[in-house]
TrEMBL record:
Its main location: membrane. The keyword Metal-binding applies. This is Succinate dehydrogenase hydrophobic membrane anchor subunit. Its cofactor is heme.
Amino acid sequence: MANNNIGPKRLVVGAHYGLKDWLAQRMTGILMVIYTVTLLVSFLTGSNFSYEGWAGLFAQQWFKLFSAVTLFGLFYHAWVGVRDIWMDYVKPVGLRLTLQIATIFWLIACAFYAVQILWSV
């Protein structure tokens, strides 16, 4: 008797990223839109369009935290998207794993650099 993996008893394998990561990308996308609108409103209602004005905005603790959370959301959003590209289009497992590890290291380095910039203001 042949096992053709069709029907209710089929063997389902894979990472099962689907819904969780789809939802995570939507939530991080919404977070980035809210941050962009907040930044735009701050820009349009502000009167000091100099470096000091922007530094004053980013010197506020709540704005630093909001920026950091948004950047971490951006990095996770990017990870999900790039990981899916690697999984869909890079078939050799070793190359795909190397690219995924390089992507993780790059995004972690970007996160550390972003925090350093935010808290240096």
